[in-house]
Design goal:
By secondary structure, the protein is of the alpha/beta class. The protein contains 12 helices and 20 strands.
Amino acid sequence: MAKTLPKVDVVTVGVGWTGGILAAELAKDGMKVVGLERGKERSTEDYLHGHDELRYALRYELMQDTSKETITFRNNRKQRALPMRQLGSFLLGENLGGAGVHWNGQTYRFFPYDFEIKSMTEKKYGKGKIKDGYFVQDWGITYDELEPYYDQFEKACGISGEENPMAGKRSNPYPTPPMKSTRSLDKFAEATKELGYKPYRIPSANLSEPYKNQYGLQINACQYCAFCERFGCEYGAKSDPVISVIPAAQESGNYEIRYHSNVTEVIYDGSKVTGVKYVDVQSGEEFIQPAEVVALTSYVMNNVKFLLMSDIGQKYDPKSGQGVVGRSYCYQILPGATGFYEEEQFNTFMGAGALGTSINDYYGDNFDHSELDFIHGGVISITQTGKRPIANNPTPPDTPRWGKEFKSNSIKYYTRTLTIGSQGASLPYKENFLDLDPTYKDAYGLPLLRMTYNFTDQDKKLQKYITQKTAEISEKMGASKTVPNPELTDYSIVPYQTTHNTGGAIMGADPNSSVVNSYLQHWNAENLFVVGASAFAHNGGVNPTDTVGALAYRAAEGIKKYRKNGGSLV
C-alpha cells in the first residue's frame, strides 16, 4: 500500500529545463517544491572523462533506457505498432537535467507568424490555403505576449547571439556576443548575401564569454571541443538546467529533488488533481505525494502519457476527430544539401553545438506562398558542430562502399564536405496522434505510449522546395559537387532525425480544441499545469528549446497567480 507523504505546495514530474525553471521561480517565491526525477543525480563532474563517441554519441549513455520504458510506433492505424527497442529517430532524456544536458544549444525564438499561423495565413491567402485534415490553429498567445518570457529564459542561459533582421522584436539584446566565426560560416554568409538573403549568427547556449545569470549562477566560455550534442559539458560552458536554474532552487531552501522516483499516476478527483503516486525504483516502495499544484514537466511523451493514464481531459479519437489529449503530435523535416569540395579544406573536426550561421528568408511566411501548395517553411543554416570520426564518413554518392577508393575518399572528404541544412516546420494532421498502446507495457506494468505518425503531403512539398534552396546556396559557395537530400517517403523510427517532438497536450484559447490555456493550465483541472513542447499547437522551423523555456517562465507566473487567487487564469 502506498505511503502518503506530507503535502507540499508544488510537485513537478521531471527535473529538466521546465521542472528546473518552475522550481527556481517558485521556490524563491517561498513555495515548498518537490521535484520527482525517475533517473539519477548528475553534475559537470560526471563528464570530466566523457569524450567517448562510442559510449555517449552512439550508445546513448545519457538517455532513456528503452528496456524499461519506450514507445510503440506505426505509420497508420491499419498497422500494428511495435516497441522502439533502441533509440533511433529521436533521443529521449533521462536523469537530472533530462535532454537539456545533452542538447546542442541552438536557441532560436519562434516567429510572430507561428503563434497566429491560422489567422495570418487565412487573412493573406484565404481559408482554402489550409488543407482539410490539418488542425492548424492559433496558439492563444501572441509573440509580443510571450516575448518577456523569452527574454527571461535567454538571460538564464546567457545566450550568445546577434540581432536576427527578420525576427520578432526584442526587448533586450542577447546577453553575450555571438560565438567565433569560421571559414565555412564565412563562406555561407558571403554566398547568402550575394543571393540577397540576410544571414545572422545562430543564438547559442554555448557561451562566447563567461557570464553570470539573474540567479547569480556562473556559466563559462565555450572551448569549441565539439562534444556538445549527446554529451554533457564538463566545463560548464553549455547552459543546461543543472548549472543554469536548478542550483537557484536548491539554494532557496524550499526545494527537494527525489531521485529514482518514477511517477505512475496523477491523482484526479474529476475537478482538481490532489497529487501524484510514484514508486521508488530502487526499493520498490510506493508513495503518494499530495500537492496544491501538480506540474507535468516531462517535455512531450510522458506529459501526454500521464494525462492519458490518469484520464484527465478528453482523449483524441481519430475516427471522429473529436477530443484533444494526444492530438496534434508533430515532428520536423530536414531538407538540405551536402557540398563536396576538391581543394579547399575546413577544420570540421572542431566546433560547438550551436556554432553556425542561418537565414530566415524561407521561414514562416517570409516568402510568398501564393503559388505554393504548402504553408510555412524553415530556417536554413550551416553549422560547425564538430565532425567526430565514427559517425561521420562523408563520400560522394558514386563512391564504392568498400575498398581502396572508399578509403581514399573517406580521408579526402572528411574535411572537404559542408552541409547546408534546414529544419522544416511540421503541421498537425488528423492521422498523426499519440495514445496508449493496448498491448505493450513498461517495466512497471503501465501501458506504453503509442505513436501513430507519417509524413504528410505538406511535409513532402516543403522538403522538396527548401532542399532546392539549400542546393542553390551550396553551389553558390563553390562546391564541386552538390548532393541534395532525398525526397520524403514514409517516416521511419530509425535513423536519428531530430529530438524536436511536439504536441499532444496543446495550448489554445478554446478548451474544445486545446488541452491547456496560455499559462499551460489544464482546462479540466485548474491546479494542473502541463509544461513542455507538448503545448505546441504545431512545430516551427527552428529548435524548440527557447519556446519551451519561455512557456515555462510563463507557467511559473501562472502558478504564482493561481496560488494567490485560485481559479482559471484566463
